[in-house]
Specification:
The complex is a heterotrimer. Chain A has helices spanning about 35-55, 70-75, 95-105, 130-135, 190-200, 240-245; strands at about 1-5, 10, 35, 55-65, 80-85, 115-120, 140-150, 155-160, 165-170, 175-180, 200-205, 215-220, 230-235. Chain A is an alpha/beta fold. The longest helix of chain A is centred in the first third of the chain and has 17 residues, at about 35-55. Chain C has 8 helices and 14 strands. The N and C termini of chain C lie far apart (about 60 Å). The chains are: A alpha/beta, B mainly alpha, C alpha/beta. Chains A and C meet through helix 3, helix 4, strand 7, strand 8 and strand 9 of A and helix 3, strand 4, strand 5, strand 6 and strand 9 of C.
């Protein structure tokens, strides 16, 4: 199987988010970065599918030059090659992102049997890039998948719902977006990290189109001025807790 | 006849020694050069002076008798061989000397006293440290030693009875006394031959058996001590990942098979006599974990011998293939993770075996090559890499504890203060350890010390990553922090975390970071002695001080925290204190691992509570957290507090 | 404004919220559900909506910010090649339309302009109070479907194997974080949850440490819960986790660190070690219940 997995570099935000002065971005000066969690699982899934069925896995990202770190991280767990659509780090809206991915996919000599995405990115959470890519490439798409297995030339994809699991059978080639929990991404080995340094990354700088979902500014949600009511310290708080539980009728 | 026996024995000895030497030569490289003076001193004290053995006086003396006896009686091997050839000849200058006859007499008896006492310990006392050792082999060796000493005394006795002694009978009182058992007759003449033959053949048998037994330490221990590490105990050996002369497939990622062991590690395995002193002091073993440092070394030794032929062949350039993984074949996986790297085993070992290096090398291979380690430690490893601290907190929140305290944060480009206060992740982020940072800062401010913190530019030193085996991640952080510190022009660092203290001071020099690193207790003790801090002493405050392994055992910081404790109250010592301290249970990245069975901190808290002190003073944020948990778990009437906190409470910051 | 709202069904709370938000735009609002008898088929359902919208001249199409709502609207947006804003907390018509939408699972908001027509957005969960929907029109799936639209549909439904209350439906969620310390440590969390007839949750650190399965994970990349009360034990309150508890009516945090960020989002606080506090609460409940 020839698999593409699309990933995004996102900051690790910790306990509170601080914005830059112009409110256009998160202050990331002292933050670490990672692959958006659903997508990290997507990469692990790609590697597992290739381990099982053969083929190659490719990770694609749109992001600043530093996003190469995330591609290398995924190569360290077994992704074979990378495509880096290098940006200046500014926000690309979902349509622009989708179009850039579609162009990159079309530029490849071989088509992909499977294009994996995360269900939504951790930061912007637009829930749509994968659907736009599928539409443009004329491929079927399923979302929020927590189990994939290859059955002949179809994929059996399972989605978690509050009632259980919904199952789809999707003919390949296809686009699938996955959710964290589909697997536990492996911890990268050091030989893997060293090999990753030598794996090929195809870098290009696509032109950024005009945004149609145009961010004006970021705003921190008003933390409701509620001050948590301290019910007590240690075990002695138990009666007060139980009183609350009774008053709201959950006992 | 003698010549034939001598030849056979020597041949058997030589073949085996050759094999062992080849094995050591086939092993991975490690650097143990330099520091000649210290090595000579180690030979003099640890080998000749039996310093480490005498840490336990009774078994120490037993061994010293046998060992010194072995040295003194050495020439009697030649004397006896000459005696075999001719009953009228002896070794010139020595064999006929009364003083030497006296020494031989004395030490033969001391050896026997040693052997009998050793048997008494082994057969009657049966201490736990022998659990898992080869007891039968030990009995055989003791029997051989006893035979050698007894046959020597009896040989001398018969010679006195026959008037063959070259020295006055009175100079060898024991032999003299025994000589009364024998008449001056033909039977004694036969017996004199029998004893000398028994003596010589036993020695020759011993010679052939020795390098095949755990008693090999006679030959290897002196070398092992010589090549023992001379640097600080808390320092781990740096692996090289970027050496252009080493092809990537030959990079050593710790120890996966016996072929990955360094020659010192291999020599370590040859030197183990299974005495179990390491096991006896191991906090993991003491709390019923799978780990016994002794069994780790024995397991590795067995694997080295099992793979021996293949390893020796590999010297000629053939890479040994298909060797069994050391874990779990030689060492159970659980044991590898049980270790808290407290170094008690290394300190106790009479022959300078470095157990922690072995365990860390096994971990390194498991973590770096197999990605196999306790799952609960994975968030720590990932968080260090992604968030620069093991709790995954945002770096931007690192200096939150300092808000409002007026502490200078050293920004890029600013002039460095006299001291950089390296706060460490635990004291920055853990709510119980944070008090230490606040109080240390307040005391330094009160005493007018010129200091600053790095704030968000301070990253994890990499210590937990290194100790769990991820040398690669550790080195990334070492390089990053050294770059930050050097760029800032930092020369002196105060650390309140003994783990940071150890890493910054002992391990960063390998990465170009050379700083004067002092622990906060050291600087605070100096400030108190100079009168720049004046805590009020409370006679009624009974305090027991828990030594952190990385402060006391690994780095010899013993007095300063005690001076501080006695400046605020009355000190009561625990039995296991100073360099004999007992780990809190957090070392070796155990802060982020689950503990099976009895908790190490529980064991320690019970000891602390037994002193009757109301306060358990600590000087390490990990100890603070672990022992505080232990106090809560045990329901002990103890309060755990860092010495800096005690000083502030005693008004030193007012 | 002529707005078409996709609703999952009339009783679905998020769908009700979507209708309320759509009404805020002014003009006509039509709530449409799709006949589910042929099985859920996102592209086909989206095609159906597009056709209805076009036939009725809708100037806005919206859906609840649920899994399906977002998925269907994404299909609509892709089919029309128009911009779409997911999970909006507020929306204003006009040219261009402006929205305030959720990022980082709710830890951050984005004000944005939507340069397209029709206006396509989904409403963020619990951004606005639900009201009963007076009339929902249920329409059949359109017959004019491309092969691609027909390619994906639910072919099988596997009921949940676990008995007990599900995390997303529970009235009480007792959740443990890194502070629980071990997999075994969860026994006291389980005990409290059982006494309250609730479900056990956990933070992402707990899942990565292997103490609980991912299905117990509450947060941005786990389940989003909406209980009457969420009891967070030994959870520091990272944004990743808080994104999953925004739907909770009340939050009780138990943490030894008075400075922990979890308290900033909590209604009630107990400062202390969960290993003491949680068993004490369980004991108190037993005492009160007289068992």
């Amino acid at each position: 199987m020839n698999i593409l997995v699309c990933v995004k570099r996102v900051p690790l935000t910790g306990g509170k988010i601080v914005l830059t002065e112009d409110a256009q971005a998160i202050q990331t000066r002292h933050l670490g970065f990672t692959v958006s969690p659903h997508e990290e699982c997507g990469a692990e899934e790609a590697v597992r599918l290739v381990e099982q069925h053969g083929g190659t896995s490719t990770a694609l990202t749109i992001g600043p030059p530093e996003a190469e770190e995330q591609l290398r991280d995924l190569m360290a767990i077994g992704v074979d090659q990378g495509i880096h659509l290098v940006t200046d780090g500014s926000e690309w809206d979902p349509q622009a992102t989708g179009a850039a991915i579609v162009a990159a996919v079309r530029a490849q000599p071989e088509p992909y049997d499977l294009i994996l995405f995360g269900n939504e990115s951790a930061d912007s959470g637009n829930f749509q890039v994968q659907v736009r890519v599928a539409q443009a490439l004329g491929l079927p798409v399923v979302n929020g998948i927590k189990a994939i297995s290859l059955e002949g030339s179809s994929l059996r994809c399972e989605q978690e719902t509050s009632a259980g699991r919904d199952v789809y059978t999707v003919p390949t080639p296809a686009v699938v977006s996955v959710k964290e929990g589909i697997n536990l991404p492996r911890y990268p080995s050091v030989p893997g990290r060293m090999r990753a340094k030598r794996k090929p990354i195809e870098a290009s700088q696509p032109a950024k189109p005009q945004a149609r979902l145009a961010m004006v500014r970021l705003v921190l949600p008003e933390t409701s001025n509620k001050q948590a009511e301290v019910l007590g310290h240690g075990a002695e708080a138990a009666p007060a807790v139980v009183e609350i539980l009774q008053s709201i009728g959950v006992m | 006849m003698l010549a034939a026996l001598l030849a056979v024995s020597s041949y058997l000895f030589a073949v085996r020694v050759r094999f062992l030497v080849d094995l050591v030569r086939s092993a991975a490289p490690t650097t143990r050069a330099g520091d000649r003076e210290r090595r000579v001193r180690n030979e003099a004290t640890i080998v000749l002076g039996q310093r480490k053995l005498l840490q336990r006086i009774v078994p120490g003396l037993i061994h010293a008798f046998i060992f010194w006896g072995f040295l003194v009686l050495g020439p009697t091997i030649v004397i006896a061989m000459i005696g075999v050839v001719s009953k009228h000849a002896t070794l010139p200058w020595l064999g006929d000397q009364g003083w030497y006859a006296f020494l031989v007499d004395l030490f033969a008896v001391l050896v026997l006293v040693g052997v009998v006492s050793a048997l008494w310990i082994r057969k009657v006392q049966r201490p736990r440290r022998f659990e898992g050792s080869h007891l039968g082999e030990a009995d055989l060796i003791l029997a051989l030693i006893a035979t050698i000493a007894i046959s020597l005394l009896l040989w001398h006795a018969t010679r006195i009875a026959l008037g063959l002694n070259e020295w006055p009978a009175s100079s060898a009182p024991v032999s003299h006394l025994l000589s009364h058992l024998f008449a001056h007759d033909g039977t004694t003449r036969v017996l004199e031959r029998v004893f000398v033959w028994v003596h010589v053949t036993t020695i020759l048998a011993f010679l052939a058996y020795l390098p095949r037994s755990k008693h090999l330490h006679i030959a290897s221990a002196a070398f092992n001590v010589w090549y023992g590490r001379t640097g600080p105990g808390g320092q781990l050996e740096t692996l090289r990942f970027d050496d252009p002369n080493i092809p990537e497939e030959d990079i050593r990622f710790g120890a996966g098979t016996s072929a990955d062991l360094t020659w010192k590690e291999m020599l370590d395995t040859f030197s183990c006599t299974e005495c179990g002193r390491c096991q006896d002091v191991c906090p993991a073993f003491a709390t019923g974990k799978a780990l016994s440092p002794k069994l780790v070394i024995m397991g590795l030794r067995d694997q080295v011998f099992a793979d021996g032929a293949a390893l020796v062949k590999s010297r000629d350039g053939e890479k040994p293939i298909d060797l069994t993984s050391l874990v779990p074949t030689a060492v159970p996986e659980e044991s590898v993770w049980d270790c808290v790297t407290c170094g008690a085993c290394v300190q106790a070992c009479p022959v300078s075996i470095e157990h922690v290096d072995h365990i860390v090398d096994l971990r390194r291979h498991l973590v770096m090559v197999d990605s196999s380690f306790p799952a609960e430690a994975e968030p720590m490893l990932r968080d260090i890499e992604r968030a620069s601290n093991p709790w995954g907190k945002a770096q931007s929140e690192r200096a939150d504890w300092a808000a409002g305290l007026g502490i200078r944060i050293l920004e890029p480009g600013e002039a460095a203060p006299e001291y950089l206060y390296w706060v460490g992740c635990a004291s920055s982020f853990d709510e119980r350890a944070r008090a230490t940072a606040e109080n240390t800062a307040r005391l330094l401010q009160r005493a007018g010390v010129d200091f600053a913190i790095l704030g968000a530019r301070e990253a994890c030193t990499g210590d937990p990553a290194r100790r769990i085996g991820n040398e690669y991640v550790f080195q990334g952080f070492a390089e990053q922090n050294v770059a930050t510190l050097n760029e800032a022009g930092v020369t002196k660092i105060i650390a309140n975390c003994p783990h940071c203290f150890n890493t910054l001071g002992n391990e960063y020099p390998d990465f170009g970071g050379h700083y004067e690193v002092i622990h906060h207790t050291e600087v605070l003790a100096r400030l108190v002695s100079e009168g720049r801090l004046t805590p009020r002493r409370d006679e009624n405050l009974k305090v027991t001080y828990h030594d952190s392994c990385y402060l006391a055992r690994h780095n010899d910081v013993l007095a300063p925290p005690r001076e501080l404790v006695s400046a605020v109250g009355q000190t009561v010592e625990m039995e296991r204190s100073g360099k004999q301290t007992f780990c809190c249970g957090a070392g070796g990245a155990h802060m982020w691992m689950e503990e099976r069975g009895t908790q190490i901190n529980d064991n320690r808290v019970r000891e602390a509570a037994g002193t009757g002190a109301g306060t358990l003073a600590v000087a390490c944020p990990f100890c603070t957290v672990m022992l505080d948990d232990g106090v809560q778990g045990a329901g002990a009437d103890l309060r755990v507090a860092d010495v800096a906190t005690l000083l502030v409470e005693a008004g030193a910051a007012d | 404004m002529r707005t078409l709202v996709f609703v999952e069904d009339a009783s679905d709370e998020l769908s009700q919220q979507a209708v309320v938000m759509a009404k805020g735009l002014g003009g006509d609002v039509a709530a449409v559900a799709i006949d589910p008898s042929g099985g859920y088929a996102p592209a086909a359902w989206a095609q159906t909506l597009v056709e209805i919208a076009q036939s009725r001249g809708a100037t806005a199409i919206t859906a609840p910010g649920s899994e399906r709502g977002n998925e269907i609207l994404a299909h609509v947006a892709a089919k029309l090649d128009q911009p779409m804003a997911a999970n909006c907390v507020s929306v204003a018509g006009g040219d261009p339309a402006t929205v305030t939408r959720v990022r980082w699972g709710g830890s951050l908001l984005e004000e944005a302009r939507l340069l397209g027509s029709p206006l396509l957005y989904t409403s963020a969960a619990h951004a606005i109070a639900a009201e009963p929907i007076s009339d929902v029109e249920t329409v059949p799936v359109t017959s004019a479907l491309s092969e691609l639209d027909q390619a994906v549909r639910v072919v099988e439904q596997v009921p949940a194997s676990t008995s007990g209350v599900s995390l997303t439906d529970a009235d009480v969620v007792v959740s443990g974080g890194r502070g629980v310390g071990s997999a075994e440590g969860f026994s006291i969390i389980e005990e409290l949850a059982e006494l309250l007839g609730g479900a056990v949750g956990c933070s992402r650190a707990v899942t990565s440490a292997g103490w609980r399965p991912h299905s117990d994970q509450v947060g941005q990349t786990g389940s989003k819960v909406s209980p009457e009360i969420y009891i967070a034990c030994g959870i520091s309150g990272a944004t990743q986790h808080m994104a999953g508890v925004k739907g909770a009516k009340r939050l009780l945090a138990i943490n030894p660190d008075g400075e922990a960020s979890i308290f900033a989002g909590a209604d009630y606080a107990v400062i202390g070690d969960l290993h003491e506090v949680v068993p004490a609460i369980s004991a108190e409940i037993r005492k009160v219940k007289g068992t």
